[in-house]
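Write out the 3D structure for:
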Amino acid sequence: MPITIKDIAKRTGVSHSTVSRALGGNTLISALTADRIRKVAQEMGYQPSAAARSLKTNQTKVIGVIVNSIDDPFFSEILFGIEDAAQTSGYSLFIAASQYDPVREQKIVQTMMEQRTDGVIICSSSFSADKGRQLLANGFPVVVVNYKAHENFNYSIYHDDVDGSQQITKYLLELGHKKIAYLGNSRSGRTSLDRLNGYKKEMLKAGAIIQEGYIFDVEGSAPELGSHGLAHFMQLPEPPTAIICFNDMVAIGLLHACKEFGIKVPEDLSITGFDNITFSGYTSPPLTTLDQPKYSIGNEAAQLLLDLMNKKIDGSFHTHKEKILKGKLLVRNSTIAPRKQ
């Protein structure tokens, strides 16, 4: 049985209310008595009840975090950043994965409201804006991360995906590639669109032609979808010499498919990813990618939410705050200059 305030009161010979006040830091209790009560509580292994504290303070000290999928290593690094900021301020996390499923989204929102989380960070780029507004309507402070419709929310942290894709495309052009393709994710909405626009912008700037069929989407970002992209590009009259992938997971799948079909990377085909997940440095060959500051994105989002919850920021409807972070190109061995025709 857990140790209660009644047990401590019995051991110390004082009233229940005196123990409660002493453990709560009430200055009406003498320092000597408070120290004795806290010492006994520690010796007895007393743990304060989170539920009781929640009723008293109207805070659960829990932050809700919504992601697309918990098995994507990209989100795990963002979560590290969120967790570090949360734990420093005495908060724990309640993590839920939407899995691109509207029914799951509604259940997540319902659970967040029932559990009375103090605030919510939406890291799921495809999460329904209506469900997000439902949280806002019920008084939850909300911060969105890399969200496809971040303009619908007052507080957001996101990565400049247009700039990141431009960095990759510019690098490939400087290597001498002209036949550069883009392999996107139709389920990622704004994120994939921004990366596509960065690619288009840089190609146009260089006067490079985007050939028919050089832009292709797969439905998701799982590694096995990389083979679908390879099949599409290789059947074109003029296959590309370089492919920019939506993210590292798809790029890793593409690398695997190339090996199966005897396509040498980077000699026959240069491949780039996006995000710099941990695995990208251990592929064969190691993957050229865009190093997105994932930990910083998560940490900044948590700090912004903490400021909102602690009223350090005016959380009124008219207040807006957003922060844009930039990544940097990380060149590895999956890219080289194209072979001379």
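The CA atoms of residues 122 and 335 lie 34 Å apart.
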